[in-house]
């Protein structure tokens, strides 16, 4: 077995993909897998499964993989052999390692990929590398962009999530609460009677359509598609033009993804965004993200289409990085994992991650750019304005800004009536999306994280939940900490109720606690202890603690959230 990473100067890694619909093999050849260079070389051979009717049938997909994977693999190996023949090298093997998609994906398809990969590794006596397909969707963008530490949005068929990297792991900052984004579009097009895949058809028809209002659901940095999908189907059934529904779907769903990306950039103080996944082939999605990044002074990168949809090129690129880091897997331990989550991967090929300056995107001392709004400090007053977001359709933009401003003013005052410290509201103008608040606290919670302050937050959330509403976005930046007027005792204030709403549903209440926990995990390494403190305080205060905490465990147990 080859000892060092690569024979001669250049390393050649074979990649194999086949998680669902794309039987694909690739060769990635490079002198240095850690950075993108002009003389690296990628060859991809793919054979797509196209269902005769309906969506992807797992058994048919596996039959396709059984035939197509060996063929694309042979083509890629021949290509590697030609590359060797054209060079002056004389390696023992045309490839130095075999990287394969280990998951997530359809079990029967993954098993075929795993079997093929093991066979090739044994045939050439080279190491095997087990790659997480979702991380590959994002690492390929990081590779080509040269970004050091981007926030990563994955918009693929079966998934939708926003990831950030910290301390050796990709962390899930936010994700879909139900289906993947491509699957949502595909289900809609199936309802309309169009063939799979539906995403490209939605894009084509949207170009002919007028914007139509549809439900928009963002909770913290999580989002949901079930409401909008039912509404879209119903709209078509009730006679709305399908082009208009497609346009409404694109404008609404992609605005949701863009908003959570902006929130993630803001929360992590990031200034780079990469996009991956099959839905990223959509021009409107890329344009919205590019515009949002441009406006906040962040850099945006999406790879070319052949690296966005499922392909083995991305598996080979990440496989090469892992191989160079010595991150290989023994054949007997190389079983596939259909639920392999991106946050389970021990990242061997990156350092600790950038240590970010712990400050917000400050325009100047007296103005601050939040995730959603611009906040101006004027003496003891704070003027918060939701400025138009030009990436959004103007009708959707106005609706969101007016609704959230009204709701924020209302819930901020209502929380105070229930004994939760919040800033006093001095003035509201929904049509200008402007609220003037009393200035409260000295720091955001993220700079004042102690057991005492986190305990307060647990109590405050219990109080507002008992009063019948949720905060909607209780992150460490939406809590202020500082001495109270009068006795000067430290108080914690909840601010930014713009995503709050009235609900008695335990799931919604539990989501507040979940958003808090996720935000703690994104802010500090001691998140576990602090989360427990918040939960205990919640339990002591709440009238319905049992049901809510049970629901929280249920949410966490769904596996996506760890
Ligand atoms: C686990 C793995 O098997 C899965 N792969 C996957 O979903 O294939 P991917 O190639 O990343 O994405 C396919 C999806 O991408 C959508 N799609 C393709 N072109 C599109 C377009 N122009 N606009 C919107 N959606 C598009 C398709 O409708 C389909 O739902 C995943 O990454 O989640
Ligand atoms: N009343 C206030 N008193 C003191 N500081 C405030 C007040 N309101 C807002 N801030 C500061 O401004 C920042 C941004 O405000 P806010 O969270 O309301 O805006 P946003 O754009 O909705 O931000 P995000 O969506 O990132 O939470 C807060 O994190 C806080 O530091
Ligand atoms: Fe994919």
TrEMBL record:
Domain Gcp-like: residue ranges: 42-316
Organism encoding this protein: Halomicrobium zhouii
Cofactor note: Binds 1 Fe(2+) ion per subunit.
Localization annotation: Cytoplasm
SUPFAM superfamilies per the UniProt record, alphabetical: Actin-like ATPase domain, Protein kinase-like (PK-like)
The protein's role, per its UniProt record: Required for the formation of a threonylcarbamoyl group on adenosine at position 37 (t(6)A37) in tRNAs that read codons beginning with adenine. Is a component of the KEOPS complex that is probably involved in the transfer of the threonylcarbamoyl moiety of threonylcarbamoyl-AMP (TC-AMP) to the N6 group of A37. The Kae1 domain likely plays a direct catalytic role in this reaction. The Bud32 domain probably displays kinase activity that regulates Kae1 function.
The protein's name in its UniProt record: Probable bifunctional tRNA threonylcarbamoyladenosine biosynthesis protein
Primary location class: cytoplasm
């Amino acid at each position: 077995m080859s000892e060092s990473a690569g024979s001669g100067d250049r390393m050649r890694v074979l990649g194999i993909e086949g998680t669902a619909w794309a039987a694909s093999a690739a060769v990635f050849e490079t002198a240095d897998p850690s950075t993108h260079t002009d003389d690296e070389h990628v060859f991809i051979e793919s054979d797509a499964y196209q269902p005769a009717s309906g969506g992807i049938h797992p058994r048919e997909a596996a039959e396709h993989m059984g035939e197509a994977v060996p063929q694309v693999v042979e083509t890629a190996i021949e290509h590697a052999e030609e590359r060797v023949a054209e060079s002056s090298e004389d390696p023992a093997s045309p490839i130095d390692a075999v990287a394969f998609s280990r998951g997530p994906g359809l079990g029967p398809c993954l098993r075929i990929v795993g079997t093929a990969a093991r066979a090739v590794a044994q045939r050439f006596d080279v190491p095997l590398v087990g790659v997480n397909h979702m991380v590959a969707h994002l690492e390929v963008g990081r590779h080509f962009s040269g970004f050091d530490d981007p926030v990563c949005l994955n918009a693929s068929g079966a998934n939708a999530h926003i990831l950030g990297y910290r301390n050796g792991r990709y962390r899930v900052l936010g994700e879909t609460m139900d289906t993947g984004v491509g699957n949502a579009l595909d289900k809609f097009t199936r309802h309309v009677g169009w063939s799979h895949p539906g995403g490209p058809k939605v894009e084509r028809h949207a170009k002919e359509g007028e914007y139509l209002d549809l439900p928009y659901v963002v909770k913290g940095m999580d989002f949901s598609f079930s409401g909008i999908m039912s509404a879209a189907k119903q709209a078509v059934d009730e006679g709305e033009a399908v082009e208009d529904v497609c346009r409404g779907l694109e404008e609404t769903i992609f605005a949701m993804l863009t908003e959570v990306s902006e929130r993630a950039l803001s929360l992590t103080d990031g200034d780079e965004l990469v996009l991956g996944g099959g839905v990223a082939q959509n021009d409107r999605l890329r344009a919205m993200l590019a515009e949002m990044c441009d406006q906040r002074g962040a850099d945006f990168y999406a790879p070319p289409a052949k690296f966005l949809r499922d392909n083995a090129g991305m598996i080979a690129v990440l496989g090469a990085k892992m191989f160079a880091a010595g991150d290989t897997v023994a054949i007997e331990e190389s079983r596939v994992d259909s639920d392999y989550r991106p946050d389970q991967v021990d990242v061997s090929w990156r350092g600790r991650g950038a240590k970010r300056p712990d400050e917000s995107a400050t325009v100047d001392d007296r103005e601050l750019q939040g995730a959603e709004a611009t906040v101006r400090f004027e003496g003891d007053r704070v003027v918060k304005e939701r400025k138009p977001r030009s990436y959004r359709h103007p009708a959707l933009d106005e609706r969101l800004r007016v609704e959230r401003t009204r709701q924020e003013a209302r819930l901020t005052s209502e929380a105070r009536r229930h004994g939760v410290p919040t800033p006093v509201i001095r003035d509201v103008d929904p049509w200008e999306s402007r609220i003037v608040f009393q200035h409260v606290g000295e720091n955001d919670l993220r700079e004042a994280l102690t057991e005492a302050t986190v305990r307060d937050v647990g109590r405050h959330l219990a109080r507002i939940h008992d009063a019948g509403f949720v905060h909607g976005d209780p992150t460490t930046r939406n809590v202020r900490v500082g001495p109270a007027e009068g006795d000067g005792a430290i108080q914690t204030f909840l601010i930014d109720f713009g995503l709050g709403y009235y609900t008695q549903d335990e799931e919604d209440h539990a989501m507040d606690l979940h958003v808090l926990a996720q935000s703690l995990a994104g802010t500090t390494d001691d998140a576990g202890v602090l989360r427990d403190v918040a939960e205990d305080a919640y339990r002591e205060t709440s009238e319905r603690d049992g049901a809510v905490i049970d629901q929280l465990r249920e949410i966490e147990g769904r596996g996506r959230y760890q």
